[in-house]
Every structure is written in structure tokens, then in C-alpha cells.
């Protein structure tokens, strides 16, 4: 009888729910990693590697072959241009985000009270669709010093001339030896003294006949008039005969008077009387006391035309560029703050109105405190943005004042590629800019995490 031996084997342990859960989680992590891997590769290639390379490159010389340690960082703070860039960057960080946050808050509150709020928001947000390159070109033209090209200077000149007027004859001058002497302030006076009862002729040149005001008449008839015993009479004329001919120092029949010219009668250094020439250039002073006088043509008659403000000069170039930045980013700040404003509890605002608070008190004591988290996020975001500003500064600032307007980003580019060809020093500037931006970025990330909790 044969016996069959049966080998007993232990059955596999049953799969528990916990094991199955762990396997699903592990599989989910692997799938998630596969999805994230392309983004991680791009992040490493476009962000991590350039940062590490720049840090390493900052310890080498311009050629990249000799290790110089911290010499680039020392040189960075000895360079006057870099110190100017640090100063300008500080101005940007202090001024631009504060102004933008304030403007965005005011506009967000006011827009709620406007009937066409959506259209108004669209108009303010539209500059965000314009590239910094295009915006820089627009404002470079707007800030042009020539009033015929720059719209801002055209407006400034128009307002100035409306209140102070403009000189009548900026190019006019007197001929030497024709009875007029030029003073240091640009005015002209008669070389010899005159008295009541006299008539004087004051000839000027340097004015094109086509530039004379409309309605100008010949001065010949006015020059022939006699003065009364208690008056001083004269004529200011253009000592130039169209087509040639005529005699210098004498009023000829075809020579025009110079209207709207200010004339003064001066005695002992003080102005005794004033007058304005008529359309034929004639003037007269009545009721003068007996004695000797000088006839003076004030310098205001010959002042050069007002050319406006040098927006892109060394003194104003940074504020001018900040103004262009405000035009672009005000809509961004307004939309973000407006989104936060829409989430405010309306019952708190209505309760304050019922208690008798006016709109200013509601804005100052309720709206602003409740919007503080949103305002902080907007402010810090703008701080990060202005630290990296490059396009506007590089495009708007003209070459001669580029150094006066430079910030860290433009200085880094100029040192590395814009003629300096010192990528070691440029990399050090890049590392400095990174170190300045990182704290603001960390603060913003923490704010977002706390708000999510």
C-alpha cells in the first residue's frame, strides 16, 4: 500500500484595507510625480540652473577663467554707477508700490459708486495689455522736450503762456550805433536822455516780416507825429525794408511798426511810466514831470519762448519713469483691491451708516482695516515687481541720463552685455537682486498660506 505524502503549505496572508490604501497612495504619488516631472525639468533648466550658474560665475573675473572670490562683490559697492542703481531702486521700492496701492484703493472705492463701473475698470486696466516696450516708446514721445512733439510739454507751455504770456519778439535786436544800448539783463535803453516834448524812433532788426503779428501797420506816419509839451512820444519799428533799399536808422515808408512791444520811461533808475506799442509801433507817455528820461525796452520783450519742463533731465528722469509705471499698473492694483472690496461684509458698513458715520469715517475705520490683508499682498507683489523693472528704464531714459536713471536690473544688463562685458560683476549684481527679492517673495508666500488656512 503506497502512501501519498501531501506537503502542507501556508496560505498567503490576506490583503488588508490598510495595505491596499498604502499601495494606492504610492501609485498616486508616482503618477503625480510623472505629471510634475516636465514642470520640474523646465523649472530646473530655466530657474535653478541659471541661479546656481550665476552664483558660481560671480566668483570669477570678466573672462570667467580666474577665481577672484568676493572681489566682484567688493567692486560692486565701490562703483558709483552701482551705488546710483541701489539708490534709484530704493526710490522705486518706497514710492511706486505705495502710490499704486493708494491709487488702486481710492479708485476701487470710487468705481463702486460709478454707474459705468465695468467700462471704467476696463479703461484703467487696458494699459496692462500694452507691453513695456510699447509703453516705454509712448512715454518717451510724451516726455519729449519739444512742445511740438511732447504732449506733456505742449500742455505745460500752453498753461504757462496763458498765465504769463510769451515774449513778442524773442529774436529782435538793435543795431550797433543806432541809439540803443543793451543792458546785462537783455533790455535796451536809449543812449541819450530825452525830455517831454521829444519824439524818439527805436529801430530793431532780427524779426522776419512773416513773424509780425496780424494787423501790423507801417510806422512811417507814426514817426512823423509831433509830441506835445507834456508828453513823450515815439515809435518802435522794424528797421528793414522788404526787397532791399531804405536807410538804416530812419523810418522808411515800407517799414513796419512793432506792435505789442512794452516800453518804459525811466528816470533815476525808476520806472516813471509804461506803455504798449500800437499796431503801427507808436507809443506815448502823458503827464510826465519835466526832466530827463530814458526810454527802455524791457527784457521781457526779447525773452526766449518757454520750452517747458525737462522731464527726461537728470533731476526728473526717475520720477518721470515711475509715472509711466503708474499708468501701466494702476489698473492691476484697482482690480485686486476691488475684488477684496467686494467680499467685505456689507452689514458692517450699513451698521456704521445707521450709527451716523460719514463716508470718510467708514473708509478710514472700517474699509481700510478690513482690506489690510489684501492691501499687504498688493503692496508686496508690487515691491517684487519694481525691483525687477528694466524695460521702462532702458527705453525711456535717454543715453546721456541713462546712468542717472539706472536701477539694479538695468545696471546688471549694462555691466554684463551693454558695453561692460564683465559677466562676473554682472552675476554679482544678479545675486544681489535675488537676495533683495527673496524676502519679499517668502513673505508673500506665507501670507497666501495663512489666508488659505
Automatic annotation (TrEMBL):
GO biological process assignments: carbohydrate metabolic process; transmembrane transport
Topology of this chain in the membrane: Multi-pass membrane protein
CDD domains (alphabetical): TM_PBP2 (cd06261)
Organism, as annotated: Streptomyces afghaniensis 772
SUPFAM superfamilies, alphabetized: Cna protein B-type domain, MalF N-terminal region-like, MetI-like
Subcellular location: Cell membrane
The protein, known as: ABC transmembrane type-1 domain-containing protein
TM stretches of this protein: 30-52, 90-110, 122-143, 320-341, 362-384, 424-445
Annotated region (Disordered), positions in chain: 168-192
Keywords noted in UniProt: Cell membrane, Membrane, Transmembrane, Transmembrane helix, Transport
